[in-house]
UniProtKB/TrEMBL annotation:
Gene3D superfamilies (alphabetical): Naphthalene 1,2-dioxygenase Alpha Subunit, Chain A, domain 1 (3.90.380.10), Rieske [2Fe-2S] iron-sulphur domain (2.102.10.10)
Protein name (database record): Aromatic ring-hydroxylating dioxygenase subunit alpha
Cofactor (UniProt): Fe cation
Species per Swiss-Prot/TrEMBL record: Mycobacterium yunnanensis
Keyword check for Methyltransferase: no
GO molecular function, one term: monooxygenase activity
């Protein structure tokens, strides 16, 4: 028996019949050739989240990002120019292709501020707009005009203070890509939450497996049982998990969940450290004194059913960005950057309103370290999953109604790959026809 209402179709999954209810084939998470297709079809074609505008606080601020998910060796510079525009460029000098911005080790990401970018190799210089301004011994070159050799740009757009890039010059604008969810989240006070904690970890599992783990809470009462007091843990395990609601909008999806009572109804439900610091996985119990976080102030996409028991909403923006809101008034983001078919880099960033006193600071720190413990538990199962599905002893797995977003993720990823393969076939067919026509004209 369902604890919360389900759609008239009978289940969340059947509400979107295109998803089907059959077991899902996980070959897409173990096939090296499929991963190469994902790299071209997905990560070179979609908007990719890099971080917040606060990373670039002033004119000349910059950071670099290594992006093997897009292609081997791919590196970009993201900077703020004199007009306040945030730009992105390939991190490559136009002279002989040397990496332009790096410190001691070429593969490490760096950040800082500058007035211009100067190549270590031959001192070619570029301004903050990417224009070439100086060529060492310019007179030694042949018919070289500086205006013809700017840094190669990468499309860069900002939504609600979040920086995105796209390596496809023909891709739709970012705001259109984010669609209804993006529109429905506008106005949340992201700019007020500048207290920032971050984690990065290398995970020996396919990038989709970690997204799978965070898009379903079906596992939480079992896998994370030891994080709660014994009596409460047993109660949660018996209850299981059901979401308040799920929604799918094109390539993107969301789950709305109960929980996160701040403070809990019974103080004995939580551990002593949480009782002392008034915090835990769901964040500090005391909601920050800012506009936009009270239940009746939230943007329409958050807690869309306006449930009184609402605790958290998780939005999955394809391909690899999670934006998760908590009822007590803070949020976090995840990114999953594939580095191979069975490996990726996981990034988590937590954002709070800056603390006003020591107690608030400690409450936020407890939330951050508690989150890390949960993430470690999830990551541990992922590597165990990857090794076993890699044997191909079994390749198809049944998913329950609370795992609907997993179905959607794998279906969407397959659709991108299928469209890419179709475009390649069409292009190859056109080239073959042109070649045949050319050969025929010679006869």
């Amino acid at each position: 028996m369902a604890f919360f209402p389900k759609p008239a179709a009978g289940s969340w999954t059947e509400n979107w019949p295109e998803l089907g209810t059959a077991p899902v084939d996980y070959t897409d998470s173990i096939d090296p050739e499929h991963w190469k297709l994902e790299q071209q079809a997905i990560f070179r074609k979609t908007w990719l989240h890099l971080g917040r505008v606060e990373l670039l606080p002033k004119t000349g601020s910059y950071f670099t990002r290594e992006m093997p998910s897009v292609g081997p060796g791919t590196s970009i510079i993201v900077n703020k120019d004199g007009d306040g525009t945030i730009r992105a460029f390939y991190n490559m000098c136009r002279h002989r292709g040397n990496k332009l911005v790096w410190n001691d080790f070429p593969g490490e990401e760096v950040s800082g501020s500058c007035r211009q970018f100067v190549c270590k190799y031959h001192a070619w210089r570029y301004d903050l707009k990417g224009d070439l301004t100086f060529i060492q011994q310019e007179g030694e070159f042949f018919d070289v005009e500086k205006a013809d050799y700017p840094l190669k740009p990468v499309r860069c757009e900002v939504w609600e203070g979040f920086i995105f890039v796209n390596f496809d010059d023909d891709a739709e604008p970012l705001v259109d890509y984010l669609g209804e969810f993006g529109e429905g989240l506008k106005g949340y006070p992201f700019h007020e939450m500048t207290e920032h904690y971050s984690y990065r970890s290398k995970v020996k599992a396919n990038w989709k497996l970690f997204i799978d783990a965070f898009t379903e809470f079906y596992h939480a009462p079992i896998l994370h049982m030891k994080q709660a007091e014994k009596e409460e843990a047993e109660k949660l395990a018996k209850f299981g998990f059901e979401a308040l609601a799920y929604d799918l909008k094109g390539d993107h999806s969301m789950v709305s969940s109960w929980g996160g009572m701040s403070p809990p109804k019974d103080i004995n439900m939580v551990k002593p450290i949480e009782q002392i610091l008034h915090s835990g996985l769901f964040g500090p119990w005391d909601r920050p004194d800012i506009k936009g976080v009270l239940p009746d102030e939230l943007p329409p996409a958050i807690n869309p059913g306006r449930h009184k028991t609402w605790g958290t909403d998780s939005f999955e923006f394809f391909p690899n960005w999670t934006l998760l809101f908590w009822a007590p008034g803070w949020y976090l983001t995840y990114n999953y950057w594939p580095t191979g078919v069975d490996s990726h880099v996981f990034e988590a960033d937590l954002y709070f309103v800056p603390p006003k006193n020591l107690r608030q600071r400690l409450s936020q720190e407890l939330a951050a370290v508690t989150f890390k413990e949960y993430a470690f538990q999830d990551a541990n199962t992922l590597e165990a999953t990857q090794t076993q599905i890699g044997t191909r002893a079994v390749t198809e797995f049944p998913l329950c109604d609370q795992e609907i977003l997993l179905r959607h993720l794998h279906m969407t990823a397959h659709q991108y790959v299928d469209r890419y393969k179709a475009s390649l076939a069409h292009t190859n067919g056109v080239h073959a026809a042109a070649t045949d026509e050319k050969e025929a004209s010679r006869v």
